[in-house]
Amino acid sequence: MMLIKNYFIYFFFIFLFNYTLYSQVTITSNNLKVDNNLVSNNTIAFNSNLSVNISIDIKMETTDGSTNTTFGNLFLYYKTNTDDTPTQIAIQSITFVNNYPKTNYINNTFFTSIKLFKNDFLSNGGTLYAEYKTNDKKVYKSQVINITGGGHTTMPPPPNNQSKQIFSNLIGNDQIIASGEIPKPFSYYTPFYRNSDNLPGRRGSASSGSSSANIYLTIFKWQIKTRSTNWTDIPGATSAGYSPNKAIYENTSYRRIAFYEGGQYDFSNNIFIIINDQSFQNTICCNQIITSSSSGKEEIAGNTPNLNNFTYRWQSCSDPSNIIQNWAEMPFANDKNFPPSYIQPSTGRGNETEAYRRLIKQNGNVISISNTVSITYSIPNTSTGPTRNDGTTPTRTSKSTTNNDFKTNPFISTNNLSDTTIIKENLDAQNIENKTNQESLKINNNISLYPNPITNYFNIEGAVNINDIAIYDFFGKKINIVKQQKSTNLIEINTTDLQSGIFILKIDNTTFSKTLIKN
User: Fold this and answer.
1) Residue 511 in contact with residue 444, Cβ under 8 Å?
2) Under CATH, to which class is 447-518 assigned?
3) Residue 281: which of 368, 179, 175, 181 has the closest Cα?
4) Residue-wise pLDDT tens digits, 391-424
5) What is the fold, at CATH topology level, of the domain defined by 284-378?
6) Considering the entire predicted model, what is its pTM?
């Protein structure tokens, strides 16, 4: 009996080993060329060059012919140094073919015209590698290719260095201009922090409160970045606002650093000045109006640009009507089209508009911004607009700034592309008329959540029971979080242990549901 049991265990492990081996994908890189010269030492060297062009052949092989393994995406990444987070520079949809008469499946993908810039890497070395992600989310990596001769000797500063939460450190807006044109002056908010606020985190939308508690920042530095240069200070640009005074001939990014309390600082959002390139198109479609929770949501579809070696990145904006639009990149949204499952209202209040757009990147740099698509969530009602319990119409206000801390210019970016609107009607949708739902909507309108996107912490402000707060991942699994009651109407949520991604925050006994983006 013992012998039979031992044989059973032996054959079980043999089966498990063979199954695991059967399911593996081997991925190797071949024929690496730098500036059209074949490289034999598996190293990309800048030497005295400011940039190099590389090409590489990625070969993959597996004995598993299932669609979960033979369909997926192949990515090309680089790291500025071994400890850096990877930057995606290319992507290719993959289908394996049967290597008849052998019982294996192969794929050969050739990446060409990949341009790397010296100033994107540290002098002590970076890396490049390929990564294959299957349909069932398994990941396989190639060997690492070393990159030497970068232009930086030290690591750049961390994203933010602050002990207080900074509000309204926002600049705008992106512009698409002709080569040789001078950009219009930038709009901006004056950033501030609350004198009594010691919560860690990043900039967000300020909630209501006494303006006398706001401490406005007065020390600034503006920086510029191009495709061939890293972030560098702009001489003399030390005011809250900035107006470029020279013609732009290549895609360029700007940002502002706000300083306070002994050298602590906070980075603004980045704004992009894009040179209009008529050789390819980057368009998405279409606007949608969602009239009830049961209305179907359509995929936001985009064209395929006539380009080589590029990647997509989708962004969302929860307040597109603001003069300064705060666009946030959406983790994992890097396909040609934007899936309907990602389309979620920002606050769950029922009457709001969320905007989406698609970036095209080459070597991690933005080269194109699509037109904007708007998703409007409109709750059916017998009146002409949303109403309170007393029948009056509420006025939507922004809590992010006051009239005293916003500066703008007459320039408003426009897009000549026409959008088609898809109206989603549901004739059977029930009007929200009963008292329970009205009270729930009233609660939602009194809840503020900031900042979003989030890093390590975010705050919920309003009359909320801390035990009713729950966070779910995008598959509906409830996530364990650390909650702390900071004051009567202020709850702090610690998200340090959450991986980057998209999550849903819900508050029990209300209709409140909000999409969270964790950077």
Assistant:
1) yes
2) mainly beta
3) 368
4) 344 433 333 333 334 443 333 333 333 333 333 3
5) Immunoglobulin-like (2.60.40)
6) 0.54
